[in-house]
Transcriptional regulator, LacI family (Leptothrix cholodnii), 660 residues
Amino acid sequence: MADLARLAGVSVATVSRALNGSPEVSLATRQRIGELARSLNYTVNIGAKNLRTKQNRTVAVVIPYDEQSRQHITDPFFLAMLGSLADALTDRGFDLLLSRVDSGYLAAASQLYESGAVIGTVLIGQWRHHAQLNALAQRGAPLVVWGAQLPQQVYCSVGGDNLAGGQLATRHLIERGGRRIVFMGDPSLPEVAQRLAGYHQALAEAGIAPDPALQLNVPFETGQARAALTRLIESGIAFDAIFACSDVLAISSMQLLRLYGRAVPQQVLVVGYDDIEWASHADPPLTTVRQPIAAAGIEIVQALFDGVAGQPTPPRTLPVELVVRQSSLR
Amino acid sequence: MADLARLAGVSVATVSRALNGSPEVSLATRQRIGELARSLNYTVNIGAKNLRTKQNRTVAVVIPYDEQSRQHITDPFFLAMLGSLADALTDRGFDLLLSRVDSGYLAAASQLYESGAVIGTVLIGQWRHHAQLNALAQRGAPLVVWGAQLPQQVYCSVGGDNLAGGQLATRHLIERGGRRIVFMGDPSLPEVAQRLAGYHQALAEAGIAPDPALQLNVPFETGQARAALTRLIESGIAFDAIFACSDVLAISSMQLLRLYGRAVPQQVLVVGYDDIEWASHADPPLTTVRQPIAAAGIEIVQALFDGVAGQPTPPRTLPVELVVRQSSLR
DNA sequence: ATGAAAGCGCTAACAC
DNA sequence: GTGTTAGCGCTTTCAT
């Protein structure tokens, strides 16, 4: 900037003002300096600017990972959320700092904030970390978590309406003739627990007694899910429908069912969750509960900015919607 | 830090040294300061540190988007690459700044560098921007592009061996009895052009004359691809195999073929490209050319760091491999 | 309308 | 082993 000032024959103060479009500096010099900067490929050093102004236009997006599995971000749903956040932030002129932190030590997520690198943090994946997240929020970092709304929650969460989602899916399966409906998902995750509650409510409404044998407690990871479903099939326990807590699980299950000669939807109805792009390309196209991904990105970002501005940030629940395709149409 | 110094009864210089683990400061005070900092949730302001030391531990990953379609990052392959890069950078203690820039104005990608926000840039998706990328590289920013190696290339590219991939896929289809092999992809993209060249070579080896009617020039976007394939089917032109330049295209095509009562693999063999996670869950499981995604992340990051260090960064081509599943096994 | 100068939080000579 | 001080590149009062 000093160079620029010298070349323009003015002081750095003027250059700074000009580059920031201050009306104090005459239009002529403002333009002259602007063009000089452009021709020199000069850009204000963002670090110095941030240091001086104590502001900052970047947001951290944290995806926790299991220390053991050390797995790559892989579920298309997470990735779609990431894209949605990227778009929402880009629209507001903010950058996105992608960070992976050990899920056992989420406190690391706040370092980005405490070191002044970001103005706040978005965490995708609440998992089992409710307490850790509360602790994190209490350290003062603006934080928004994609996940379920829980009792005694200090942090702000934005999430789909999981209870309604579970009900929607299950009611639909019942309407279509399902009576022995398998539930697939890991209820130790808050979001899944709520979907399970919706499943139970819908069963109760229809006067169907839930059979614990049909509740498959499997993580969002196809390997174990396939094993569990295989055991179920081979045990000979009857079922005529599946409500899976993710599309990945649902599609993987449909494939397995085919292997065992069970036709979808003729013999088994299937409903998934998320409505990832693949759901409509599955065979048969998958009925699923659509999560409002684009809206989610916008809401999350809005909530985060509210938090940064010191405004209250109540948890938000976004509506979900049932998308009926052929996997549930007998 | 001044506060910390006061509380510890030392000067800021000592605190700085202690926090950076300098052996000059006595172990006792070093530990004392360390614990004090921890108890205060204090973290060195990274912006100020970067400003002073003129270093920086963040890398920009840019995903261009079309100004028109303004579409979300959506192809699972891109997202998998992103995950791989995130892992590779995390392993080296670097942060990843995710940025979306208008593909018509890629020069914007260098701003992150010129403003000192990042030490270099990784661009996923070479598309048609060879010239722009060259210009970008010439501005001095360390840049690595995932894509094909091209003549007169100034920037460093890391990519799969597209020529071999095209050959592998096509030879396999021929071995399996394919004679009239459809090619799907947009040859205006360098990577696809190389795969097409491989396709042509394999045809020539087998003495099969290429039929231009079988070359479907469609983008990586299923809508147009489906339209083109539909036209081909309805035109009555015979074909017995498809080589699609992405798994998304391939799976979408299989779905369409089923609609038209063409059995895969009995009537039409299909091979895809990328080996995204979904390929093995498709129906039938998709034979495909595997891109080395995990290795790619590591290579890209290595190349970028070489560039930052001022070392030469020749383009790198990574081996691909054919993964045979049922979609091509008649 | 423009300039001089202080200071954002940190590190690294250089002194002691 | 520790303190003093200059300065990274910028913005912003306060003067003029």
Remarks:
- The first strand of chain A starts at residue 58 and ends at 65.
- Residues 1-2, 12-13, 16-17, 20, 44-45, 47-53 of chain A lie near DNA strand D (CB under 10 Å from a C1').
